[in-house]
Specification:
Blueprint lengths: L30 E4 L3 E4 L2 E10 L7 E7 L12 E4 L5 E7 L8 E9 L2 E4 L3 E4 L7 E3 L3 E4 L7 E3 L4 E4 L3 E3 L2 E4 L4 E4 L3 E6 L2 E5 L6 E5 L25 E6 L3 E4 L1 E4 L8 E2 L2 E3 L6 E4 L2 E3 L9 E2 L2 E4 L8 E4 L2 E3 L5 E4 L25 E4 L8 E4 L6 E3 L2 E2 L8 E5 L4 E4 L5 E4 L3 E5 L4 E4 L25 E4 L4 E2 L11
Parallel strand pairs: 11-13, 12-15, 13-16, 14-17, 15-18, 16-19, 17-20, 18-21, 19-22, 20-24, 21-25, 22-26, 23-27, 24-28, 25-29, 26-30, 28-31, 31-32, 32-34, 33-36, 34-37, 35-38, 36-39, 37-40, 38-41
Antiparallel strand pairs: 1-3, 2-3, 3-6, 4-5, 4-7, 7-8, 7-9, 9-10, 41-42
Length: about 475
């Protein structure tokens, strides 16, 4: 529930010169840290803290104090107290309104029978758009591998400037900010990342130069701004049930041996959940065959193991690369929710075909962007089994003269109403998927065609464009 902070916008004369009352040093009071405020919109921020030690007795009240003066406290009549329950652990709430033109000071507090404890003083200066300017976030430089169970909390910024391996359980709580420079977070062996944000408190993986999240961490003022490829990737090559929910993954994609990715899945890493995550501003290289914001590859084949739902891609080159037998949920999107005209340069779902699972059924049901196939998707030839469902109004594009699709007596291909099979260069169907503007035009023979093993001939139809047959 939102609380009101209107009482803060009062005459400056009432605020100048206010002093806190001297209080005796409490005994065995709680230990509490202040959550870095997270912007929800131009006037609303998620604020809170974390009681890491209750002290001698149980915490009977916790919350935040907000003021236009530094170090707000419960005993200052000009400061606003917002209570957020009791007990130990993390707590937060959405507060509003925060007005432009003011700098707000925020401290978490926790009270037990021995007294009151405060967290760090953090500030936020609201701006229109963006994330506002937030300062006062303690920095933790992560220099060692994660070999024992570890928790990263929202009251600090975690900075990686070299590759860090996770071989134990790394828990990242809602609101946590991770900044990286020339670094990669690797999950290996039996490691696991549990990064479970919430709708109101995302977890952010971003550039070391990104001042929009908890301020000027690299301490250079405005000398640098975040750029695509400032850091490498999240690399999953181990563990089971790695979880990333409500995570923003920004400015990744630095060259990693020819790979340009925000997330890279390897042979031991397909057990994961990505839900309500945003992947944006990923560096690419148009000549690299491995440049995708999310590189699932052939390992991302089973949606019951590799869960990928409600995710957003924008301002990348190619968004995603996965196995042709993976049914990608239609609740994923390929544009900026705040600016629907902003998509990705080569906006499509790029497929690879390295395996022919027996009796597999795959459904291609996303019509926002085309599916892109670079091989002959024949399902194992005349003896192939399984079903391919191409949904209504879905566009499938083929990239070369050897690429196509085939059906057989036990390998069914269903074509939905309004579906199109066409050339990768065909901008009239599904947009400019090869991202070259008007530099290329489709022509007959750009791809092979739709082969029917039953009749020993190519399929003809009004939904087939620019095939050789």
């Amino acid at each position: 529930m939102k609380k009101t902070l209107n009482a803060l916008v009062i005459a400056t004369t009432l605020l100048v010169g206010c002093k806190k009352k001297d209080q005796p040093e409490p005994v065995l009071i709680p230990t509490v840290t202040t959550l870095a405020p997270a912007k929800i919109n131009d006037t609303t921020y998620t604020c809170g803290g974390n009681v890491t030690d209750k002290g001698h007795t149980e915490v009977i009240e916790r919350g935040v104090v907000v003021s236009l003066n530094p170090d707000p406290a419960l005993d200052d009549a000009n400061d606003i107290k917002v209570a957020m329950g009791s007990g130990s652990g993390a707590f937060s709430s959405n507060l509003d309104p925060f007005y432009q033109g003011y700098t707000y000071h925020i401290r978490a507090y926790a009270r037990n029978n021995d007294g009151v404890a405060y967290g760090e003083n953090v500030t936020v200066t609201p701006t229109s758009g963006g994330t506002g300017t937030v300062t006062g976030c303690p920095i933790v430089n992560v220099t060692g591998n994660i070999t024992t169970p570890t928790t990263w909390t929202a009251d600090k910024i975690y900075v990686l400037q070299s590759n860090i391996q996770v071989s134990s359980v790394l828990t990242i709580v809602p609101g946590t900010i991770v900044k990286m420079k020339n670094a990669r977070l690797d999950v290996i062996s039996s490691g696991k990342v549990l990064a479970n944000g919430t709708a109101s408190s995302h977890i952010t993986f971003t550039s070391f130069a990104d001042d929009s999240y908890c301020g000027d961490t690299n301490g250079d003022g405005t000398a640098t701004t975040p750029q695509k490829g400032d850091w490498i990737s999240l690399y999953l090559n181990g563990g089971t049930n790695n979880t990333f929910s409500y995570c923003d993954i920004l400015y990744a994609g630095q060259n990693d041996g020819g790979y340009y990715n925000a997330v890279l899945i390897s042979v031991a890493g397909p057990s994961f959940t990505f839900d309500h995550c945003t992947m944006a501003h990923t560096l690419s290289n148009s000549s690299s065959s491995s440049a995708f914001a999310f590189h699932g590859g052939s390992y991302m084949a089973d949606p019951t193991i590799s869960v990928f739902t409600n995710n957003v891609f924008y301002d990348n080159d190619r968004p995603i690369y996965l196995n042709s037998y993976y049914t990608l949920n239609a609740n994923n999107s390929f544009h900026n929710p705040g600016n629907p005209s902003q998509g990705n340069t080569r906006n499509g779902i790029f497929l690879t075909h390295y395996s022919n699972p027996a009796n597999a059924t795959v459904s291609w049901n996303i019509s926002e962007v085309p599916y892109v196939m670079d091989v002959n998707f024949n399902g194992g030839g005349s003896g192939g089994t399984g079903t391919v469902n191409i949904g209504n109004n879905v566009v499938v594009k083929f990239t070369s003269t050897s690429a196509g699709i085939a059906k057989a007596s036990s390998r069914i291909v269903n074509i939905g109403a309004g579906a199109v099979l066409t050339s990768y260069k065909d901008d009239a169907h599904g947009g400019d998927t090869n991202g070259d503007g008007s530099a290329s035009s489709p022509a007959t023979g750009d791809w092979d065609g739709f082969w029917n093993y039953i009749s020993g001939s190519y399929v003809a139809g009004s939904y087939i464009f620019y095939a050789a047959h």
